[in-house]
């Protein structure tokens, strides 16, 4: 960070003022010796690179001003920067609507093994979502939120990352866990909150977390994971690890203060973090036109000094390439990258929502059919001879069977015992919590009929 | 701000304490033998009489260095070194950063500026920009950042330039910091320390005179401690950094220039323990942070009037050290709480409830609590003085309770 002060000895007024302010700012004598090093150098980052030319522009016709951040040219015209550009930022895609490779497209080549795993996982995710959703409708699960329509974002981005990259999800990214090896049984365990759940049954369904797979437990609050991700990236940078932090959020999440602060921080700290926005058009019932007035998310990156790209989120190959490239940039150049993935939330926001109340069923249908991420990718892998109808039906029936079995087992598994209500609040339960547990147990003893039968004491 | 010589100094004052004239106190029911006290600090592991065993069964911090006994100040003047409270905090922080490379500091102006109260002075030069991080102005963001970094193995110390600013970080502190260890099933720990100056200062204005301990005390999953002397400031800072739980360390704007001699050797203070400042017989006065000094000033007056107050600096605001407090209540049967929080919903309010619930049978009089009024702190110096509890009020309250 320290740059040498390359000004000429004939100091300009500007530099004199700067030095004087520094001395004033630090006050004591012991600090003046440092003036030539750190305090000035911290200003150097934001100073014009060619300071030697400062003294030459003092006449009235000066067209350039030195200002923290670099030279600023003057203009006598009163010109406002338009609130939007004439054309929207183009969207990177590699497969067309029918899944055919676009000619002259740039993309990162995917091996057969990886492509087939990507597609299989997308199918698995789709089936898992459908079955869990139905289970909730049947009353077997209390709550669920699907990822339908966003399978490509989930799986393709996960495929482009390495297992050491730490993930900070919002709540619509179980595909990343799936890719990394979270089993259907483990998903079911969390949804049923049984004793095999990593989270010990404390959170509601879809709030997965796995230390082993570097996937941080979902915290329901919107966009709070963005600053967390910046901190994790900072930690990785300090340890010089070959890994980055990756965080996901929706178009709605970008309105939260944490989004803006996190992007700003990441840029200033030069933290290797990928900000992946799933712009799926809806934040519960709020369309993007009521969420922001900018051209989506991609243009916001520049405001914070962050390199950004807009990708077709339903094109698995494009997602893979974009995330792969971004990851390399983030780690080698130590910078954050913003990726806006355009997609559509085909399902409802969650099982507590009926989206036909605020959008047309036709719109949902169109995106599900014409822009389906699975069918597009399937066309491409089939064109390479890597997939067939037979493998498709085999996979689907196998996964469906596995899912139903996982559901059945999870439903039957015991819940965590009562002690887990009070443990892990701290590393060791303090006196007041031990006392409260004692009181609960006493109450249960005197009113056993009011206590749920499936929670062991 | 005049520097107050504290701690060991109090011991010498007490050695001139005269046994109370029994005629003056016939109304007080004395239930145990009176004795002269030679030392007043709780970290000494002696037990006086029946009830002053301070060590209790709660788990001590793992990996803790042996809690050294506070040196007998009156005798050996050779060991120990004198410093101001903010320097003690800095020393504790620096020692922990030396000891563990994962400890880092994040906050506004903590780096080369050295912190607005100079607690992080010199650290950026010694440890570099990465470990002493200057952040842009967004409390929620850098608190969130620290939480994310803690989940990946760092041990950040977050500095709020003023505790009041941490209201902006409430979301991260409550929803992420306090909860994630629990909701993740114990998979992720968040060993952060959140610290900063708070309390009513000298004409800092309403927004900069907040008592955040009131607002944070409900959050499950965090611990709260308040330091009041250079000795416990350094000890609590070190203990907080070593703790696996998120800890909020409350400092007070007016206490940074307190001077005291502290031991040279490594020591920590137990996070869950209260500090016995002055053992006594007639009444238990519970206090913390700056109010400790108002109480001790009132204690001088009270002693001259023939009262024998027991003063406890509760130090641990969440959870309360009910063991020490309980033993004291069982001995004196009267409780006065002196705090700087506002009347409604402050630490005093919770402490009153806890004492009533747990020690109701031992009380001879209702628990009395002296707090600040439920008003934003005025800027005018005279008005500001009257929003905080003054020694005169404490004396009156004790006299009232001991009738």
Rg value of chain A: 27 Å
Q: What's the main sheet of chain A like?
A: 5 strands, parallel
Strand order of the largest sheet of chain A: 3-4-5-9-8
- DSSP helix fraction of chain B: 25-40%
The total beta strand count of chain A reads: 9
Intertermini distance of chain A? 58 Å
Please explain how this structure is put together:
The complex is a heterodimer of chains A (457) and B (403). Helices cover 41% and strands 9% of the residues of chain A. Chain A is α/β, with parallel strands linked by helices. In chain A, a hairpin with a 2-residue loop joins strand 6 and strand 7 (286-287). In chain A, helix 4 (112-137) packs across helix 5, helix 4 (112-137) packs across helix 14 and helix 5 packs across helix 11. Helix content of chain B is 31%, strand content 17%. Chain B has 13 helices and 14 strands. In chain B, helix 2 runs parallel beside helix 8, helix 4 (139-151) packs parallel to helix 5 (170-177) and helix 9 crosses helix 13 (391-401). The model of chain B is unreliable at 1-75 (pLDDT under 50). Classes of the chains: A alpha/beta (457), B alpha/beta (403). Chains A and B meet through helix 3, helix 8 and helix 9 of A and helix 4, helix 5 and helix 6 of B.
List the helices and strands and how they pair.
The complex is a heterodimer of chains A (457) and B (403).
Chain A: H1 13-26, H2 29-32, H3 38-44, E1 64-67, E2 70-73, H4 112-137, H5 151-160, E3 166-168, H6 174-180, H7 184-192, H8 225-238, E4 245-250, H9 257-269, E5 273-279, E6 282-283, E7 286-287, H10 298-303, E8 307-312, H11 316-333, E9 337-342, H12 361-370, H13 373-383, H14 389-412, H15 431-446
Parallel strand pairs in A: 3-4, 4-5, 5-9, 8-9
Antiparallel strand pairs in A: 1-2, 6-7
Chain B: H1 8-14, E1 81-84, H2 85-99, E2 103-107, H3 123-127, E3 132-134, H4 139-151, E4 155-159, H5 170-177, H6 180-183, E5 193-198, H7 213-216, E6 223-226, H8 230-242, E7 247-252, E8 259-262, E9 275-278, E10 283-287, H9 291-304, E11 309-313, E12 316-318, H10 322-332, E13 335-342, H11 347-359, E14 368-372, H12 381-385, H13 391-401
Parallel strand pairs in B: 2-3, 2-4, 4-5, 5-7, 6-7, 10-11, 10-13, 13-14
Antiparallel strand pairs in B: 1-8, 6-12, 9-11
Helix pairs in contact in B: 2-8, 4-5, 9-13, 10-11
Keywords (chain A): Oxidoreductase
Protein name (chain A): 2-oxoisovalerate dehydrogenase subunit alpha 2, mitochondrial
Domain Dehydrogenase E1 component (chain A): 122-418
């Amino acid at each position: 960070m320290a740059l040498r002060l390359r000004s000429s000895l004939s100091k300009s007024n500007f530099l004199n003022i700067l030095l004087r302010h520094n001395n004033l700012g630090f006050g004591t004598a012991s600090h003046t010796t440092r003036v030539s090093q750190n305090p000035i150098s911290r200003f150097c980052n934001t100073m014009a690179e060619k300071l030697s030319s400062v003294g030459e522009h003092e006449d009235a016709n000066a067209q350039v001003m030195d200002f923290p951040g670099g030279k600023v040219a003057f203009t006598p015209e009163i010109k406002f920067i338009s609130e939007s550009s004439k054309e929207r930022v183009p969207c990177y895609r590699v497969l067309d609507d029918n899944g055919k490779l676009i000619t002259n497209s740039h993309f990162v080549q995917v091996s057969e093994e990886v492509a087939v795993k990507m597609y299989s996982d997308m199918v698995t995710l789709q089936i898992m979502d459908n079955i869990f959703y139905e289970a909730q409708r049947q009353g077997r699960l209390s709550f669920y939120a699907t990822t339908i329509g966003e399978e490509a974002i989930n799986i393709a981005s996960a495929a482009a990352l390495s297992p050491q990259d730490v993930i900070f999800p919002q709540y619509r990214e179980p595909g990343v866990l799936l890719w990394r090896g979270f089993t259907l049984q483990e998903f079911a365990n969390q949804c049923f909150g049984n004793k095999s759940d990593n989270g010990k049954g404390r959170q509601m369904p879809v709030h997965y977390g796995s230390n082993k797979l570097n996937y941080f437990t979902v915290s329901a609050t919107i966009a709070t994971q963005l600053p967390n991700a910046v901190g994790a990236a900072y930690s990785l940078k300090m340890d010089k690890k070959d890994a980055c932090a990756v965080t996901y959020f929706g178009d709605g999440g970008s309105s939260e203060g944490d989004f803006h602060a996190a992007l700003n921080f990441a840029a200033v700290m030069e933290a290797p973090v990928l900000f992946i926005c799933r712009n799926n058009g809806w934040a519960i019932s709020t369309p993007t036109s009521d969420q922001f007035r900018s051209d989506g998310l991609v243009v916001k990156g520049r405001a914070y000094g962050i390199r950004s790209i807009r990708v077709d989120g339903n094109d698995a190959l494009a997602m893979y390439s974009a995330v792969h490239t971004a990851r390399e940039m983030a780690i080698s150049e130590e910078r954050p990258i913003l990726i806006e993935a355009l997609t559509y939330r085909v399902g409802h926001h969650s099982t507590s929502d009926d989206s036909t109340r605020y959008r047309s069923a036709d719109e949902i249908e169109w995106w599900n059919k014409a822009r389906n991420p699975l069918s597009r990718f399937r066309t491409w892998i089939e064109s390479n001879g890597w997939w067939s109808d037979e493998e498709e039906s085999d996979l689907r029936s196998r996964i469906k069977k596995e899912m139903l079995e996982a559901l059945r087992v999870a439903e039957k598994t015991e819940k965590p015992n009562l002690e887990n209500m009070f443990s892990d609040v701290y590393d060791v339960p303090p006196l007041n919590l031990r006392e409260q547990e004692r009181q609960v147990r006493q109450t249960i003893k005197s009113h056993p009929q009011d206590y749920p039968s499936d929670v062991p004491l | 701000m005049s520097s107050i010589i504290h701690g060991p100094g109090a011991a010498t004052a007490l050695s001139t304490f005269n046994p109370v004239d029994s005629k003056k106190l016939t109304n007080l029911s004395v239930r145990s033998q009176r004795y002269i006290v030679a030392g007043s600090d709780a970290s000494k592991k002696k037990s006086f009489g029946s009830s002053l065993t301070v060590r209790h069964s709660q788990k001590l911090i793992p990996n803790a260095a042996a809690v050294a006994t506070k040196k007998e100040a009156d005798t050996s003047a050779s060991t120990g070194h004198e410093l101001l409270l903010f320097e003690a905090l800095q020393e504790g922080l620096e020692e922990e950063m030396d000891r563990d490379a994962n400890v880092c500091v994040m906050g506004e102006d903590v780096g080369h500026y050295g912190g607005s109260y100079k607690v992080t002075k010199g650290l950026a030069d010694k440890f570099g920009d990465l470990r002493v991080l200057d952040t842009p102005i967004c409390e929620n963001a850098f608190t969130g950042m620290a939480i994310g970094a803690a989940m990946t193995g760092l041990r950040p110390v977050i500095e709020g330039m003023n505790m009041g600013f941490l209201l902006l970080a409430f979301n991260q502190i409550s929803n992420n910091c306090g909860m994630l260890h629990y909701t993740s099933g114990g998979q992720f720990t968040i060993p952060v320390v959140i610290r900063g100056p708070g309390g009513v200062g000298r004409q800092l204005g309403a927004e900069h005179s907040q008592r955040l301990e009131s607002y944070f005390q409900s959050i499950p999953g965090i611990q709260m401690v308040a330091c009041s002397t250079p000795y416990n400031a350094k000890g609590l800072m070190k203990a907080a950094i070593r703790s696996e739980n998120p800890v909020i360390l409350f400092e007070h704007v007016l206490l940074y220039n307190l001077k005291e001699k502290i031991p040279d050797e490594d020591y920590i203070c137990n996070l869950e323990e209260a500090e016995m400042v002055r053992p006594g017989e007639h009444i238990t006065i519970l206090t913390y942070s700056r109010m400790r000094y108002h109480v001790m000033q009132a204690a001088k007056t009270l002693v001259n009037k023939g009262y024998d107050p027991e003063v406890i600096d509760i130090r641990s605001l969440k959870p309360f050290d009910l063991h020490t407090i309980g033993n004291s209540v069982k001995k004196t049967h009267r409780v006065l709480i002196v705090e700087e929080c506002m009347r409604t919903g402050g630490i005093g309010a919770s402490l009153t409830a806890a004492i009533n619930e747990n020690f109701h049978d031992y009380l001879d009089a209702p628990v009395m609590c002296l707090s600040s009024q439920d008003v934003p702190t005025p800027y005018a110096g005279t008005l500001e003085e009257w929003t905080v509890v003054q020694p005169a009020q404490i004396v009156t309250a004790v006299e009232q309770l001991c009738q």
